[in-house]
Amino acid sequence: MTQAPAQPLIGMGHVWHRRLRPVAHAFRYPSYFLLLPLRSLRDQPSAALARNRRAGISFHDCDHGEGGGDALAWFDGVLQSEGIADADGEVWLHTFPRVFGYVFKPVSFWYAHRADGSLAAVLVEVNNTFGERHAYLLAGDELDWGREQTARKVFHVSPFCRIEGHYRFHFERTAAAAGSPANTRVRVDLHDDAGPLLHTSVAGTLQVLDAASIRRALFGMPLMTLGVVARIHWQALRLWRKRLPFISKPAAPEHFISR
Known about the structure:
Blueprint: E1 9-19, E2 25-37, H1 38-43, E3 50-51, E4 57-59, H2 71-81, E5 91-95, E6 98-99, E7 107-113, E8 119-127, E9 133-139, E10 149-152, E11 166-174, E12 183-192, E13 195-208, H3 211-220, H4 224-241, E14 257-258
Parallel strand pairs: 3-4, 9-14
Antiparallel strand pairs: 1-2, 1-13, 2-5, 4-6, 5-7, 7-8, 8-9, 10-11, 11-12, 12-13
């Protein structure tokens, strides 16, 4: 029996951030995101997903990678160049959509699966507010859902954090069960020589992307992506008022991908 193509999903949840030192600082905001099965969408596009066209909620390939018209082709090229040849299953992209044409994606997560459903690689694609982009590639025998992954920090994101230390990633995704919807959660913690510095997470309950779920997202948070940028600057102002040292932006990494 031929398996039905995977359907695009929308996650309704929140973004959480907590700084531990030198001053305590935390916030939690409601949010939503897309979870897109890019290989299935290549074979059978979704009528509900506005792709590369204007809509209340839309996805544009040029918002990822090198800005081309086929984000999956770019990602497959990354896997090939990095010697990852067994990612022949679904590729799920966890990302913020454009909302009424506006987008800022602080972070997106690419999950590359093998044919048996196991994880072959995860790409963490990061954008900063200076228009720069960098990606951390995670792969190897230790890669799996719920298992901690690490990467050395090499990319400037916050003017209140130096480029030092390492990230600890935790990826979780659970299927729907009796009485419980499907959900996903990503936690990214930053550690330096003194120990944990930042705890962050993005999580949400998953549902099929259709006209009804799009309406709920738009009516509930019509300015979601604009709010992302506004909140970044508001939290930066709060940190500045707490007298955290301001760190000037260094040059971007020489290589787009770090592994």
